[in-house]
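Blackboard transcription, Thursday session:
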Amino acid sequence: MQIKKRAAAVALLTAATVVLTGCASGSTTSAGDAAACEPSEGKVDLTFTTWIPGMEDAVKVWNDENPDVQVKVQTGPNGNGGTYQNFFNQLKAGNAPDLGQIEYDALPNFRVQDGLMDLAACEGVLDAKNDFVDWTWGQVNFGEDDAVYAVPQDAGPMAMFYRTDLFEANNIAIPTTWEEFAVAAEAVRATGGYITNFSQSDINQFAGFVWQAGGSWFENDGDNWTVDLASPESVKVADYWQDLIDRDLVSTNPPWTDEWNNAYNTGSNWTWNSAAWGANSIASGAPDTSGKWSVALSPQWASGDNAAGNWGGSSTAVFKGSKHPYEAAQFALWLNTSDEALTMLNKSANLYPAAKSGLELPALKEGIEFYGGQAIYDVFAEASAQVSPDFIWGPTMTQVYNDTSDGFKGAVTGNGTLSDALTSSQKSTIDALEAQSIPVNK
Amino acid sequence: MSTLTPTTPAKPARGIRSIEGKAPRAQRESPFARVSAMIVMAVFTLYFLVPIWWLLVAASKNRSQFNSTNPLWFADFSLFENIGNLVAYRDGVYLKWMLNSALYAGVGALVGTIIAGMCGYALAKYNFPGRELIFNVVLGGVLVPATALALPLFLIFSQISLTNTFWSVFLPSLVSPFGVYLARIYASASVPDELIEAARLDGAGELRTFFTVSVRMMVPALVTVFLFQFVAIWNNFFLPLIMLRDETLFPVTLGLYAWNSQVNQIPVLRDYVLIGALLSIIPLIIIFLLLQRFWRNGLSAGSVK
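(Written on the board underneath:)
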């Protein structure tokens, strides 16, 4: 009897929870109207959720100049650390902020869930296209000419960080193609070091390699998604790295660990193919190697090519349900094109601007001591111009990263290969899309 | 948790065996059992203390030494300099977080304990229809993890526009089904009906009886509930993560997590996370040392009855 009663009590409680959740989910916010983007009357207060440190300083400049449009900064952990999930919860509850920080690879997820306001009708937004590095615009309009779902903020064009001193001392030429890179890898291995580390869990770095090779992981024809994780370009990149792993020419330390930092700090790893924001990661992870690094454009797949990949980068989006899309769009444009704001964000959070004018900031023209006085951002500016505009992210990137990373972890320990991992996450990604009722071509 | 392993069980065992005296097998086993018990405990002590030791050592290093020196021994001792930097970072936002945590956990646990104590006492000492049903529903609440309730709570608080406020974290923290359970068990065992009757005869109202007579007898249980609640609120992470967006409302757990999520791109935050984590366990240690004695009493009372 006692047990029965208790079970009934538990059931009651569970039911109550379900009912409450059900109620709240039912009252989703009405969709904002993309066609109308008119200035609001009177004083406007906007909320902006971001995890970028120092954002409030940049926002303060705006607030001082625009007494009628006051922006309040809200914060949290980085996107995948919980803020994206919060955005989805808030969209469901109808109290999303006006503006939010969203990385490029997460934008399609918000688009598919209908969380983003199309800013094309807002004054000046479509015209701003030419203010931004071409490919970043492709990340925010998903290839639709008459739509803009966010304003690009920063980018992560990739180049090669390398140890000038070690290459010189051992008389090894700096590789300019991936073929030369593999040859150099043998020479480096002969000295006892590794030319680089293959990261088993930075799947977006691998995506950057595929990006450079001319591949794309997803496609969207307006209705249906196509998943291309195991495209010929992807497999080419995977087989290339698999070969280096098999011949023990690259190390496979888990990235961002002490072990990984140490391999760079002690000089056992010689290069890192990484993004503009990586400059600070090396400087802090390998402090003993100051002055010994340089940056060169990434090795190419064919000699004479000039392609670069991209790793990271984010945008400022306006959420559906915002009552002041016009003001929000004006703020987003200012934040991501004004030299003053971009300089502050570069200083406080190492953001590498997506705006063309941002690449010319005085702060990004200086020689950097850690890199032997080289003006490394000139290299990244060149790389940024070489990034293809055709790479498209899918709506379930977290799942793609997890599944691919699981496969890569197996591959570096000898279970399966990198291209097996891509084939299997190709399948699991299609399943994941179907599970969310997102139309997908098989 | 090390407070849960007082060595008392070993002692009676020895005592009994020495009374039995001559059984040679028992005497042969005894040192072996003791040594192995000691080894197990030593291993666990080491297991629990090494991370804290590592944290202390890591927090005392400057950034270049962090990667290049022995992780378990000190280099140049710059702990206080590091603390100074942490406290100065972004106008002392870290101190604000500590203060918030102290408010959420301290006030929340105090009010939560009073509520749980009153509920438990009422369930134990008053006869009214539906008493068992209410108690069973509360027991059901013990089974539902707080994490599972965070999202429904967020949606409810959204309806009344209370998200991103102090109350959105504080109010849910007041509820402790386990506290009610413990208070009821303890009250029915340790507060005699005769005493309440006597207080009533002397003209005390029910509230006065509770606060002046019964509470005193329930102190061990209430302290236990307070400690449980304090630790649970201090460590509660998911609810603030979902509810709060304003940095000045964050508890220290959420703040450190937010910093930690960005160490790849802003390496200086790594130092602050380490030092911040070290400082954030100090209040827990203090409160444990102060109230440990009560906790042990309370726990044994709950488990025996």
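Lecturer's comment: The first strand of chain A starts at residue 44 and ends at 49.
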